[in-house]
Amino acid sequence: MSIQQAPQVKSLNPPRRVLMGPGPSDVSDRVREAMAKPLVGHLDPEFLSIMDDNQSMLRYVFQTNNELTIPISATGSAGMEACIVNLIQEGDKILIGVNGVFGKRMADVAERAGAEVVTIEKPWGEVFSLAEVKNAWQTHKPKFLGLVHGETSTGALQPLDGIGELVHGDDGFLIVDAVTSLAGVPVMVDEWGIDAVYSGSQKCLSCPPGLAPVSFSQRAADVLSSRKSKVQSWYLDLSMVMGYWGGERAYHHTAPVSMNYGLHAALQQICEEGLETRWQRHDNLHRCLAAGLEGLGLQFMADKAHRLPQLNAVAIPDGVDDAKVRRRLLQDFNIEIGGGLGAFKGKVWRIGLMGDACGKNQVLTLLGALEYCLK
Ligand code: PLP
Questions:
Q1: Which residues, if any, are the signal sequence (predicted)?
Q2: Which of 75, 123, 219, 344 has the most CB atoms in a 10 Å sphere around its CB?
Q3: To the nearest whole number, what is the mean pLDDT of the chain?
């Protein structure tokens, strides 16, 4: 038997960055300390009560009474897949708004799940008006509508007013991507008639990446329970996952215990701050940041009327070396900002103001550092 030699690696020593990119955002010491607490089993009574807390705090953050509200054990994309694969059956028609990377991803996921996908498209940075959505909805007559609330690739905030009523008027279902929007701007799941919503732990919830909170309305849960075909994904089949998160506590997969500790601490911080105060903090500091960025001559990709406060996408000025500026911000100032994605690659910087990274000091430091790097 010849045994491969163990590699020699350095001890783990990540630097303390200021995470002002598109996520992950900074997490508090309280969240990090929670994740380092002693491990218990995923069926330990102590952990079961943490699960209950996480569900009730998620209901608050989503502003919903939905029974089916849980953190999926994986990142935001798995939240997207969970919403799609549990609701879509072969041949179901879904209309998806595509105005950036994540609408496109939703369309891809839905197509893989066997849906008949139709899209409405808008230039990146723009959003859909209610009239445009209504027109596409009435033309295509789908069963589902999928919209990205906060499009992280462009920094645009999709208004959702009136959309739930439109869709419900025809017995349809509204699926919303709230990965970046949740806990940074209002996401009123019950009031807005959202039937399935997914998010990610690493944005405005300020927890490390690894959990995807989702919530299904009773109507959406009924679709799931009356399915004729099995859910395409075993791992994400919520009818089985709910055997664990619901009353029965039956083993489905081993829950990521320490991630749920982290989420508990992160959600508790949100509950203590209060959603309204948190939304206001994001809005106020976005205004300060926007004034400073505009003062530096940077232009936003999204119109002022529908900007996502927590994701500021600005055009990289002509002649400026994208990679060099971001490298200097990281090396000299320990600040991470994001580059562009997809069509915006090399053209845009994405400056996050998410959760714990959304503070006065961070805004002032970034503006000073960026001015220095742009010289
Ligand atoms: N949807 C949006 C709007 C996102 O911003 C992201 C990630 O940035 C995702 C979905 C996918 O989430 P994840 O990268 O956690 O899988």
A1: none
A2: 344
A3: 97
